[in-house]
Amino acid sequence: MPESERIDITKPLWDQNTFIGRVKHFAWVTDPRTCVVSDATLDEAKILVEQYKNCSEPPGTTREQIIYAKKLYESAFHPDSGERQNVFGRMSFQVPGGMAITGAMLQWYRTSTAVIFWQWVNQSFNALVNYTNRNANSPVTTTQLGVAYVSATASAMLTALGCRTFWEKRASTLLNRYVPFAAVAAANCVNIPLMRQNELLHGIDVCDENDNTIGKSRVAAAKGISQVVISRIVMCAPGMTILPVVMERLEKYRWMQQIKPLHAPFQVMMVGCFLIFMVPVACALFPQRCKISVKTIAWLEPEEYEILKKNTQGKVPDFVYFNKGL
Predict the structure, then answer these.
(1) Contacts (Cβ under 8 Å, ≥6 apart) of 179
(2) Residues sharing a CB contact under 8 Å with residue 213, sequence separation 6 or more, in sequence order
(3) Which of the residues 24, 97, 272, 310 has the least number of beta carbons within 10 Å of its own beta carbon?
């Protein structure tokens, strides 16, 4: 490939300092169509990306082939470990997986059994997504995973059942439709921090502007995890807050009452329409390469600040950078 056509394959194709650039990047990398690509093709894409980094790609390789290989690699392999991710835990599976589960939660919310079952399914899916997209430099034990899973599932079920019991005789049917969203929001606040608890306990790697690791920080982990929690809630919010209003209105029409078996497929399809847009938008709310002021670390983590000073021979940068996860 001519030198003039080469790209920096380690960097996104769009400016990540702008919200629009991040939306374009995540719309590209979370494309649901990449979920059906075979493992063999994904491995070939990874090999091509590695070859391109070393300027040793096969003769005749085109720019389009490199960009597509980059897309497959970033959609399916963990940015820290380089390992191929479980297909159901990838962010590119958020649309098909999320639309099916969210649509079901919105459709079957009237009985306690249905609430418990679908919250369990949703939190099992969330736990897999959170584990798959964790910071791989902070390993989690099997016991920690089990505690995180049970705690998140229990919090979702208790919130859902509590809201349903409280609102059942006190609120309208429309307000009862918001029980799934309340449960999902509460569970996200529990599931993600617990699934990534090692980052909060031991800190995550922080780097200088040249990506040289110079220390660890628990404050950086807390900031990254907080941003991920907000993003996940925003991701599901439009579908779970707008669709109940739509269904409440539509179900009053006679023709809608005559096609009750189609209500669930309709809600699944509508949730999918929301998620197609909201997955990249939510992921783009905050930069993936997050930064934090060293002054904040010096204030809240003086011991880590001393390590930073030692590792940089006293030339501590104003900011340090880290991967916040997804």
Answers:
(1) 109, 115, 160, 163, 164, 167
(2) 205, 206, 207
(3) 310
The answer to the question of residue 302 being in a domain is: no
Q: pLDDT by residue (tens digit) across 268-300?
A: 888 888 888 888 999 899 998 888 888 888 888
Same domain, 132 and 164: yes
> Are 105 and 234 contained in the same domain?
yes
Secondary structure percentages of the chain, helix, strand, coil, to 5: 70, 5, 25
How many CA atoms, within 13 angstroms, populate the side-chain half-sphere of residue 142?
A: 0
End-to-end C-alpha distance for the chain, whole angstroms: 33
Amino acid at 216: K
What is the tally of structural domains in the chain? 2
Query: Looking at the structure, do residues 119 and 27 belong to the same domain, yes or no?
Result: no
> Tokens in use for 205?
């790697």
Residue recorded with tokens 């930073």 = 308
Residues 118 and 213 in one domain: yes
In a domain, 158, yes or no: yes
109 falls within a domain: yes
pTM score of the predicted model:
0.79
Neighbours of 288 (CB within 10 A): 19
Nearest C-alpha neighbor of 216 from the set 320, 70, 114, 120: 320
Structural domain containing residue 65: 3-76
Q: How far is CA 285 from CA 16, 31, 273, in A?
A: 11, 18, 19
DSSP class of residue 77?
A: B
H or E element, residue 113: helix 112-132
From the number of C-beta atoms within 10 Å of its C-beta (0-12, 13-18, 19+), residue 114 rates as middle
pLDDT digit string (tens) for 180-214? 777 777 777 777 787 777 888 888 888 888 888 88
